[in-house]
Amino acid sequence: MAKDLFHESVKIALQKDGWQITHDPFYLEALGTDIQIDLGAEKLIGAQRGKEYIAVEVKSFIGPSLVYDFHLALGQYMNYARGLRKADPDRVLFLAVPEGAYVSFFAKADVKESVEEFRLNLLVYNDLQQVVVNWLKV
């Protein structure tokens, strides 16, 4: 499967943010087949608390329609989230979106409502600086 345009930028951004990349890609069985979430990572959150585990699906949102890109990403995210709940329930799924798309699209009231209603965790990244800008977990 082809990697998203900003795959490496998000991978570097996660590493800068203290995450260890453990899977590239993260393989999962769902919908009766093998699927690939772009990245799996872990981070030590304190000696007493152990590790935090995430899976990240990277999206570029550079198509001619942000709404269409969102529909595709939403469907993918929902299926991946379902698969993770069964196979790896301790791992939290995030949809990685570029800062530009977040500002121009995801900040709109209707889109925010959709993000909350469908329980999308967002990782906002800057692809040029290769940094995580924000974590938005519902």
TrEMBL record:
Q: Matching SUPFAM superfamilies, A to Z?
A: Restriction endonuclease-like
UniProt protein name: Element excision factor XisH family protein
Record organism:
Spirosoma soli
Classification from the root reads: Bacteria, Pseudomonadati, Bacteroidota, Cytophagia, Cytophagales
